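User: I'm writing a tutorial on reading structure tokens. Could you give me a worked example: one chain, its sequence, then its tokens, then a sentence or two explaining what the tokens reveal?
Assistant: Sure. Here is the example chain.
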Amino acid sequence: MHYIGKLKKNGKIFDSHIGKAPFKLRLGMRVVDKRRLTIPPAMGYHLILMYGAKGAGSAIPPNSRQVFDVELMDVN
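And here are its predicted structure tokens:
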């Protein structure tokens, strides 16, 4: 899948996987489906993200809600 990660508060993009090799992740989607995932700060720590209350430097302030627009490219 491909993704774009943005801050919920202001839409600022902090990460993008567009133009790179597809990212592998298990989500209940069909090929070419698109989803918007909103990740609250408490869940940011439990996912691969590890941001949560700490944030990530100047890119992601502490306790930020994150929005990921994902598109499933292929299924293996």
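What the tokens reveal: The two ends are 11 Å apart (CA to CA). The beta strands are 2-7, 13-16, 34-39, 66-71.
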